[in-house]
Amino acid sequence: MKRKSRLSLLGISALAMSIAAMPAFAKTQLHVIVAHFSDHTLTTFQNAAKRFEAAHPDVEINIEDVSWDNLQQRLATDIAGGTAPDISVIATRWVLDYVQNDIAEPLDGYIKPEFRSRFYENLLKPGTVDGKTYLLPILASTRALYYNKDLYEKAGVSEAPKTWDELKAASEKVKAKGDGAYGFGIQGKEIETDTYWYYPFWSYGGDIVKDGKSGIGSDAGVQAANLYKSFIDAGLSQPSPTGSNRQDIETLFKQGRLGALVSGPWLRGQIASEAPKLNYGIAQMPGATKQLTWGGSDSMMLFKSSPNKEVAWQFMQEGIFSTETRLEFTLSEGFLPVLKEEMNDSRLANDASLKAFADMLPIAQFAPLMPQWEQVVAATTAALQQIYLGQQDAKTALGAAATQIDGLIAPQ
Amino acid sequence: MSRPHLLLPFAMLLPSFALVIWIMGYPVADLMRMSVHAVNRFGQAGNFVGALNFSKLFADPLFWASFRRTVIWTVCVTSGTIMISIPVALILSQDFAGRSLARLIVLLPWAVSATMTGIVWRWTLNGQFGMLNALLLKFGLTDQPIEFLATGQVAFPVAILIGILAAVPLTVIIFLGAFSSLPGDVFDAARIDGAGPLNTFRYMTLPLIRPFVNIAIVLNVIYAFNSFAIIWILTQGGPANSTDILVTYLYKVAFQYGKMAEASAMSLMMFAFLLVFCILYARFAMRERAL
Asked: What ipTM describes this predicted complex?
């Protein structure tokens, strides 16, 4: 009697459990991690998920946004713990790590030619390893010269500088006339300190990696570092650049205290909301023997470990890369579009300042793909900081960093 | 039936003991495993490599520079904190009007996380828009804004001062407890015997609060040695690694460079270093009292 009732209790509880668990069995769950580009990012992707769920009632999508600073660490922890998402945003330059450790799923089997042809082809290249496509770009950016028209006019500079020498001359005039304003902002602290120096480095004909060796110790490297150092020594930049990160020089520019700086498309949106009265222009990246600009992109990656790769791919194709989602993303984030059809939208086509950045896509150079990239960045940044501080001359510091980087590149 | 159970106390301790072993022991065991294997960026272990990760670490000049700086940082923050906290606690233990308010003000920063302290100071110290520079300029103490965080020679001492500021509240609480536990009659006797305040402090208060000083030193050393937020937020160890201490360098090695195995080796060494310090300190400094 007692035993019987216990058995029936078991049966009931088992039944209850299976009922409670049913929806989870019925619906395919997708977990998508996106980077927090702005406060609008999560909404954009959630809208895409809602539309997709409406069309596919058997799918449930969970979108999570993670700040850029934590993304790399978060994904590493999730992968190690076996709880990796199905899809995630990653910085395109991380691709090698994910491919070499067999975490990224190659997408060539999924991509149809008509889908592929919607992308700007050169943006697919950085996410391609050994001929296989692993990443789809969701944004692109280039860098351009922002200059303060009022300060330039007051200083008697009539045209935006086209070369680094012209920029220096303009900065001297701004310094002489500009009521304590600085001529040109130089970034010397934290993320992208190295990038800020690749701009002149590339113009002088330098290569980050040449023939499998670091090229930063070359003449072009020394020339570029000495150029910035001459700005610092002559008081043409803000004082002590090693105390200024990207936001610091952008703030100076927004306050009208900086003649010019190099930045990306995001700064337009910030100026519009924070310093709407600032009278500024956007010009192409200054050149020297060459004219090149920094190209960057972030991408979506499909995880090999995902149990629902087919559905995840379907969400990428129909959700994330639908024209509607792409437009919502590009318009709210202010980055460059990755799909050609986006430029058909009048809001993007008539945006002159966006066009200034988009026009530079053909001369955009992407950072080389190498597995130890973050360490290369750290070595380069430390060398530049020593030069800016006057602790070492350009040739010594960059030469030592190049030797260190050669050791990182060489197969271990 | 009434026979005392010899094993019972141990049996009752077992669950909590097992929990501690699980929480403390598992990560350390995992670190040990990772430190002797090749591990990729995603924490997945590969081949056994023996002491290779340790020898790589020993050959890294940045590791040794960070180690040296960690010792300076820990010694300065701990000694500074204790030297400030004792007089502050002494004042706060006196009876005066508004004492509760003064106590609240001193202890309030404890409620603020080190991260927030770091962010506030980063803004305050900013060379172009910082409040401190605005003040210095206004009072004519300097005619050029000072970039406090642009060079290691200035940024590191500044970080130490902020580290002290962040550690003072907890230490003051420890000493407030110490002073309130002092026996009043001994001090009354001393006063009747004509001992001045300086002598009272030197020969009575200090020896009596000695155990509390020991606790404060051990707690502060552990706290400072592992304190990441302040330096990371102020300078991220820069410029050119000139303010890196072991924890900030550890974070870079692990999560920026993705060298999990070397990072594991480094954490193990930090753990061992702290452990040895605490054991030695307990043996030499704390034992004196028992004599």
From this structure: 0.86
pTM of the model: 0.85
Contact yes or no for B147 and A252 at CB 8 A = no
Enter the tokens of residue B100: 């509760």
Token readout for B182 is 């002092």
**A240 interfacial to chain B (CB closer than 8 Å):** yes
A91 touches chain B (CB under 8 A): no
Query: Mean pLDDT for chain A?
Result: 90
| Chain segment A31-87, per-residue pLDDT in tens | 999 999 888 999 999 999 999 999 999 999 999 999 887 898 899 889 988 999 999
Q: Least CA distance to A258: which residue of chain B? A: B128
Top residue of B241, B257, B259, B264 to mutate, by most chain A CBs within 10 Å, is B257
Mean pLDDT on A386-411: 93
Burial class of B210 by CB neighbour count within 10 A (0 to 12, 13 to 18, 19+): middle
Distance CA B150, CA B165 (A): 21
Burial bucket for residue A24 (CB in 10 Å: 0-12, 13-18, 19+): exposed
Contact B255 A386 (CB under 8 A): no
Buried b (16+ CB within 10 A) or exposed e, A178-207: beebbbbbbbbbbebbbbbbbbbbbbbbbb
Instruction: Find the chain B residues whose C-beta atoms sit closer than 8 A to any C-beta of A.
Output: 40-44, 126-129, 144-145, 147-151, 235-236, 238-241, 252, 255-258
Distance CA B62, CA B269 (A): 15
B253 near B266, Cβ under 8 Å? yes
Which stretches within B108-227 are classed as H helix? 114-125, 131-138, 152-180, 184-192, 197-200, 206-225
Omega of the bond leading into B239 within 30 degrees of 0 (cis): yes
Round to whole Å and give the CA distance between B235 and A251: 18
CB contact under 8 A, B127 and A244: yes
pLDDT grade for B258, boundaries at 50, 70 and 90: confident
Q: Which of A73, A192, A242, A380 to mutate to test the interface with B (most CBs of B within 10 A)?
A: A242
